[in-house]
UniProtKB/TrEMBL annotation:
Source organism of the structure: Nocardioides bruguierae
Recorded topology in the membrane: Multi-pass membrane protein
A Pfam family reported for this protein in Swiss-Prot or TrEMBL: BPD_transp_2
Protein known as: ABC transporter permease
InterPro entries: ABC_transp_permease (IPR001851)
Gene Ontology cellular component terms for the protein in this record: plasma membrane
TM ranges: 34-53, 65-84, 144-162, 182-204, 235-256, 262-282, 313-332
Amino acid sequence: MTTVTHAASPTDESTQPSPPTTGWRTRLKDPGSWAEWAAPLGFLVMVLIFQSLNTTFLSLGNIEAMLAAAAILIVLATGQTFTVATGGIDLAVASTMTFSAIIFGTVFAAGAPVGVAMLASVAAGTGFGLVQGLFIGRGRITDFIVTLGGFSVASGLALVVSDGQPTTIIDRFLLRFATGSVWIIGYPVLVAVLVAVLAHVVLFHTRFGTHVLAAGGSEEAATATGISVARVKTAVYTISGSCAGIAGVLLVARIGADEPAANTQFLLNCVAAVVLGGVALVGGRATIVGPFFGALLLTGLTNGLTLVGVSQYYQPVAVGCVVVAAAFLSRYQK
């Protein structure tokens, strides 16, 4: 058999389709790639800008303060990531945290050890998340309606249980936990990092994590492959409630009391951190590293604006603009 090879002429080359280019230049031109790295890159740019405007921004004391302030938001954003990964959202996460903190204070005031009060806080958040998950997963009620109602219920329960009055919590262990650190990394921050690492392992290295992403990508396809979408949705809202319970413990440790007032800023910021982190709001695509840096970015943004003398009234405007920009980039994710 004779093989005949034709030499390619310039004309032939011009008519052949060019292979797709996947180099870094192509990725730079793709807005979807920017969405994936919006939080880390935004965090780096923010650090450079604020450090040039005020050299105390990267001082050890300020870094320690920012990390401590970001711990609660990291935990809430981690739990929120699971719900958003299924195409849902937990609007009650901040109220659940407040309710869990009130349970912490109530149990502690009744004479229980601080360790029991911590467990009670996490149990309260987990239970509230489970109830919401059952309504959404088993009851097939829209997550927006259920969690919006949950927001009101949790806020009301916090006021009813506490009678609208905060309880000051004085405990030596809790004080050491709140103020102790490993170098500049406080114990609450270590807890937040541990929660994020465990969430990453669960989401990307377990069968359950695969089911979460599959349910978010297409409920019909997930059901066809034998995945119980109802169970997955129940589980993710339970996880979100557990994270809110942990955040309740961190909140009590931070302020030394169980404040019954609604912490709505945490709801807005945790959703913003998830959006900044590149988690697809339609579900099926998620990351833990992204929301982690998103929480750091939002905390650092507020801190930096304060250091450079920007009025606190303008700070929500800046946060909102950053979130809208990130949401715009997320439209191009594939």
